[in-house]
Amino acid sequence: MKKHLFVLFLLIPLSILAVAYAEQKTAMKLKVSYEVYACNCGTECKCNTMANKEGNCTCGKTMSKAKVVRIEGDTAYLKADNWKEERLFTITGKYVCSCAPACTCKAISQNPGKCPCGEDMRKAD
């Protein structure tokens, strides 16, 4: 009986951590007026990299700090000071940062490459 309780108490926290980690890493939790760093390449670029941390997108170019103007479904409309108009970004990434859960970058992208924190992006679950 004690073995069963031990296993139960061990499995429950591990299951919760696994679910929380997977959910946290595949989509950006955004609201209107939030600021994030986003790919600065322009509308022709399809990487759609976004992160909470300043750095380079998966294209290797410096990201711009942008504000969430509106959200429609799985799309966020962002506006940066150096952009003439809003740009569309998918808020669910095909690739996510592979750094530890304690990392605060929360980077997502539609392309593989390096995260702003320097880690390799991994295919989302």
Describe this structure in words.
- The chain has one helix spanning 2-26, and strands at 35-38, 50-51, 64-72, 75-80, 87-90, 95-97, 108-109, 121-123.
- The chain is an alpha+beta fold.
- The chain has one domain (2-123).
- It has a five-stranded antiparallel β-sheet, with no helix packed on it. A three-stranded antiparallel β-sheet has the order 7-6-8, with no helix packed on it.
- Strand 4 and strand 5 (87-90) form a beta hairpin.
- The longest helix is centred in the N-terminal third of the chain and has 25 residues, at 2-26.
- It starts with a helix and ends with a strand.
Rg from alpha-carbon coordinates: 17 Å
Total of DSSP H or I helical runs spanning 4+ residues? 1
Biggest sheet layout: 5 strands, antiparallel
Can you tell me the overall shape?
A: globular
Secondary structural class: alpha+beta
What is the total domain count? 1
The proportion of residues forming helix, as a percent range, comes to: 10-25%
Quote the average pLDDT.
83
Helix-strand string: HEEEEEEEE
Percentage beta strand: 25-35%
Query: Order of strands across the biggest sheet?
Result: 2-1-3-4-5
Give the low-confidence spans.
14-24
- Alpha carbon gap, first and last residue: 35 Å
How many β-strands, per DSSP?
8
